[in-house]
Amino acid sequence: MRETDLLAFEIANEIGKPGSVMCSYNRVNGVYACEDKFLLLDVLRRDWGFRGFVMSDWGAHLPVIWPARLEQLPLPVLSGSNIPRASAEVRRAFGFQADRMPFDVEYPEGSDIGYRWFEKTGAKPLYPFGYGLSYSAFRYDRLKATGGRQLKVRFRGTNIGDRDGADVPQGYASPPGRTKRLIGWTKPYLKAGESTMVTITADPRLIGEFDQKLQRWSVREGRYGIEVAHDAGDAAQTSYVAMSHREVRPEPLCR
């Protein structure tokens, strides 16, 4: 979880500095999320330094990729769809919205969620991650990527269409032996024929792995693939950089 859902929340916590967060109703490794010491105390309070309040939530998240076929998904059958209806005891405990008996949800994809799963399996979705339409057309060139201890990607985006419009160029990096990771994006609005230079500086956690034992992020030394893309399935330019080994500890916002 440190490399998927938790990382997104960690970065959002740093940037947004929220006063409250929601915990989900489901269980994580057998423990209800709203009663999970690891999530609420070890991660949220200790590692991230969160000082706000936590409230419960009935919601869930939706996928951001449209598969071409259900068989492309890691779990083609919706979890809980074959579970019996909730008993009276369960409804008393969880409220009238508890439609099913409690059940476990497995994640066979591990940390390779979303677009990473499609890359790992070689499946082509109907609409890939980051897909979108514009009133114009755009070209990317002059890609220059630098590595070492800090990954930076710089390139030029040009509106080659006849109309003014906005675009969302995306940067991806592939660590050695791993699927690619989204490292950043921007949304320039360009007039017809106009160009702009775009720079993406990657947070090292986005290309690193979390060491549960040492409680820190580790960026592998090695050769990383770089893509500038219109979406996760449409790389416009590619390159490679050599990254140095780097370790990053979680830094609380306040102590």
Describe the structure.
It is a single chain. The chain is globular. The model is unreliable at 58-63 (pLDDT under 50). Helix content is 16%, strand content 31%. The strands form six sheets. The chain has a four-stranded antiparallel beta sheet, with no helix packed on it. Strands 5-6-11 form a three-stranded antiparallel beta sheet, with no helix packed on it. It has 255 residues and is an alpha+beta fold. It has two domains: 5-121, no CATH class; 138-248, Immunoglobulin-like. The longest helix has 12 residues, at 5-16.
Q: Judging from the principal axes of the Cα atoms, what is the shape?
A: globular
Query: What's the overall average pLDDT, rounded?
Result: 86
How many strand elements?
16
Summed up, the helix count is: 5
Q: Which class do the helix and strand fractions yield? A: alpha+beta
Largest sheet: 4 strands, antiparallel
End-to-end Cα distance, whole Å, is 24 Å
Helix content: 10-25%
Strand content: 25-35%
Uncertain segments are 58-63
As for the number of domains, it is 2
In short:
This protein is of the alpha+beta class and 255 residues long. The protein is built from five helices and 16 strands.
Question: How do the strands and helices of this protein lay out in sequence?
Answer:
Elements: H1 5-16, E1 20-23, E2 27-28, E3 31-32, H2 37-47, E4 53-56, H3 88-94, H4 115-121, E5 138-146, E6 152-159, E7 165-166, E8 170-174, E9 181-185, E10 189-190, E11 195-201, H5 204-207, E12 209-211, E13 216-219, E14 222-231, E15 234-243, E16 246-248
Parallel strand pairs: 1-4
Antiparallel strand pairs: 2-3, 5-6, 6-11, 7-10, 8-9, 8-14, 12-13, 13-16, 14-15
